[in-house]
TrEMBL record:
Entry's transmembrane regions: 21-40, 123-142, 162-185
Domain PAS stretches: 326-392
Record organism: Thalassospira xiamenensis
InterPro entries noted in UniProt: HATPase_C_sf, HATPase_dom, His_kinase_dom, HisK_dim/P_dom, HisK_dim/P_sf, PAS, PAS-like_dom_sf, PAS_fold
Catalytic activity as recorded in UniProt: ATP + protein L-histidine = ADP + protein N-phospho-L-histidine
The protein's name in its UniProt record: histidine kinase
Annotated GO MF terms: kinase activity
Alphabetical UniProt keywords: Coiled coil, Kinase, Membrane, Phosphoprotein, Transferase, Transmembrane, Transmembrane helix
Segments forming domain Histidine kinase: 461-680
Coiled coil: 431-458
NCBIfam families per the UniProt record, alphabetical: sensory_box (TIGR00229)
Pfam family, one: PAS
């Protein structure tokens, strides 16, 4: 459906202006590029001339130094390796002592000397059609002037090679720029032609909609009395000239009948919508002062910071059935859509649905709409229509399966509005990919859950079944120690002690592993409990070691949560026993437990257990919660399951546990923090 209209002439004017700007920009770029080229070459030329002057003056100064040492030497022989360079020696009376210098160059030289009043210098002069670069050095001690000259073009050979290279590069850039501009020009030209074709297309579409008695209007909800942003076929379908009706929302609303205006005041005038889309029959005054019946469908759309109200008007003839306006709308909607009466009979569908399902779907018009969907979802459709017939107008979205023209199952999310005058309109969006991904995720989660259950069951069975043979090994090893201890040599007694100690540690490890496997298996035992009482129970179980090590435990008021008493008691026992076990030598253990509301997770409590023991380096913060991970294997006994069990208990209660790594290393001790969900 055409929800917006355009002004093709504006688009074409914009494209024409853009092409002119492109041409101006291209010409400007070429001019700047050429100016840059000439400026760079001028700079390079001046630099080459200055370098040549300096080179000639250096050669001349060198030759004058040679002449000072040997006044009879032939200077031309000194520079035999440079045949293009000529050397001559003059006296101050312009007599040539050595070499050959053309007389007119001698005149130019002495004019330069009289002008500059310097002992050394250079000048440019003409020798026939050749520009010569001449340098001189005056030797007043010998009454001599050393002169060198060479054609300028020989010294500028490197500059000519550079200018050819730069010219090639600039030419390539110009060709690329010109090619890009021509390409953009052609693209804009084609776009210009498309805009013209689009304008003709919209003109044809506008005429077609006008013949069908269809008009589209839209305006900003922030300014309901403002100018219409779209006014397709308005007020032409009323038989008015365009100048007879101002192109404003007020002009349209003023044409509504009193009853229709009262009915639509809330959404269209006061901008109070119960739903973002409504449909109803309205009466509109025509030019003859008569009332004509129209079907009106209005929609409120949010686009970025602007909110637009769009109205579709469909002209209704007295002999037309009510479903005809829906058929006109369905013909233009880009989404799969259907129109169904209150009996659940399919009255119309959109071309998008026919393209998805196949042309055979038109055979279902006049039949129950449930046949459009797979048999597994038909009961859902029947239930939905029964609820609507009973007066349930609550909007909901149904996700139903449909078979496309290739026989594949597609999931469509249907949104229904109505009923309006006994007709319900439903549009759909394809959510097949989303549903398939959700099903894959659900299957993966089920598989992970089964795998986790199997692993826990395996750990439980393995731990339980290992107890009996381990008891036999431990019993007979202890019996062997009692009967033969001291009767064998010292090495045999040591071996027996190793066996007894290993059996005890193995028994302890299996017991802890069995406890770890059983933790979390009784989720139904969650109940409301006071953490203060749970902590007291944990301290009572550890009373002997607390008294033995002279440990002190302090805490503030702990919260009431919903959890498993045995598991939480075990959590406190493990943290307290670890704090006492890993104490500093000679320092009585002190443990402080503090509870506060979690600042990051509403409804959770954060409980910290802080001790003054040997502490844990932050680099081990994640490792310590893994199974069988121990940091002090030689100094302290243990199985490496205590903190793993704490993590499992915290996660069982919806929280987590971690080591506080913000505690400074200079502050001895460790702080464990865990979260628990509060009482609901």
């Amino acid at each position: 459906m055409f929800l917006t209209s355009i002004e093709p002439s504006l688009s074409r004017r914009g494209l024409s202006k853009l092409r002119k700007r492109l041409a101006a920009l291209t010409m400007t770029g070429m001019v700047i590029l050429l100016f840059s080229f000439f400026f760079i070459q001028k700079t390079l030329y001046d630099s080459a001339i200055d370098q040549a002057r300096a080179q000639m003056m250096a050669i001349t100064y060198h030759l004058s130094a040679v002449l000072m040492q040997n006044s009879t030497i032939d200077l031309q022989r000194v520079i035999d390796e440079n045949p293009d360079l000529s050397v001559g020696v003059l006296d101050t009376d312009r007599n040539q002592i050595n070499g050959t210098i053309p007389p007119h160059l001698v005149d130019d030289l002495f004019d330069e000397i009289d002008k500059q009043k310097a002992y050394r210098g250079s000048l440019l002069c003409m020798h026939g059609n050749t520009v010569m670069l001449m340098a001189y050095s005056i030797l007043p001690q010998l009454d001599r002037i050393v002169v060198t000259y060479i054609p300028r073009h020989i010294l500028l050979g490197n500059w000519r090679e550079a200018i050819m290279l730069h010219a090639s590069l600039f030419l390539i850039v110009l060709v690329i720029m010109a090619g890009l501009s021509v390409w953009l020009w052609q693209r804009l030209k084609r776009q210009h032609l498309r805009a013209a074709d689009l304008a003709e297309h919209f003109n044809d579409s506008e005429n077609t909609l006008s013949d069908c008695g269809c008009a589209i209007l839209s305006w900003s909800s922030k300014n309901p009395s403002g100018i219409l942003t779209s006014r397709l076929n308005w007020p032409e379908i009323l038989g008015l000239e365009f100048g007879d009706v101002k192109p404003t929302a007020d002009a349209f609303l003023s044409r509504l009948g009193a009853a229709s205006r009262a009915q639509l005041r809330s959404p269209l005038i006061d901008n109070e919508w119960q739903d973002n889309r409504i449909g109803t029959m309205v009466d509109i005054l025509t030019s003859a002062g008569q009332t004509q019946r129209f079907y009106l469908m209005a929609q409120r759309r949010q686009e970025e910071d602007s909110e637009t109200i769009t109205v579709l008007l469909l002209e209704i003839a007295p002999q037309q059935e009510l479903c005809h306006p829906f058929e006109t709308y369905l013909h233009h909607t880009p989404e799969p859509a259907i129109a169904v009466d209150m009996e659940g009979i399919l009255q119309g569908l959109s071309p998008a649905l026919a393209e998805l399902v196949g042309k055979a779907v038109y055979d279902l018009i006049g039949k129950p709409v449930e046949f459009l969907f797979l048999p597994e979802d038909r009961e859902t459709i029947r239930t939905s229509f029964i609820n609507r017939q009973s007066g349930d107008t609550q909007e909901r979205e149904l996700v139903l399966r449909i078979s496309d023209q290739r026989g594949e199952t597609r999931w469509l999310a249907w949104h229904a509005i109505g009923p309006f005058e006994g007709m319900t309109f439903s549009s759909a969006r394809d959510v097949t990919q989303f549903v398939e991904n959700a099903n894959k995720l659900r299957d993966t989660l089920d598989q992970l859950k089964r795998t986790n259950e199997d692993l826990e069951q395996f750990a439980y069975v393995a731990s339980h079944d290992l107890q009996q043979p381990l008891r036999m090994v431990a019993s007979y090893t202890q019996l062997l120690k009692r009967r033969y201890g001291g009767s064998l040599d010292q090495e045999a007694d040591e071996y027996i002690d190793y066996a007894v100690d290993g059996a005890k540690r193995m028994h302890k490890l299996i017991s802890h592993l069995l406890e770890y496997a059983k933790t979390g298996s009784n989720d139904d035992e969650m109940a409301e409990l006071d953490c203060n009482q749970v902590l007291n129970e944990a301290q009572a179980d550890l009373k002997a070691i607390i008294v033995q090590e002279q440990a002190t435990i302090t805490h503030n008021d702990l919260p009431v949560i919903n959890g498993d008493r045995i598991s939480l008691s075990r959590l406190f026992q493990n943290l307290l026993s670890n704090a006492i076990k890993y104490r500093r030598p000679g320092v009585p253990p002190h443990i402080d437990i503090h509870a506060m509301r979690d600042p990051d997770m509403p409804g959770f409590w954060r409980i910290s257990v802080r001790d003054n023991g040997i502490g844990i380096h932050p680099e081990h913060a994640h490792r310590i919660f893994r199974l069988f991970q121990r940091l002090h294997k030689d100094e302290f006994s243990g199985t490496g399951l205590g903190l793993s069990l704490c993590r499992k208990i915290a996660e069982q209660h919806g929280g987590r546990i971690w080591l506080d790594t913000t505690r400074p290393l200079t502050d001895p001790g460790a702080t464990f923090v865990f979260t628990l969900r509060g009482k609901p």
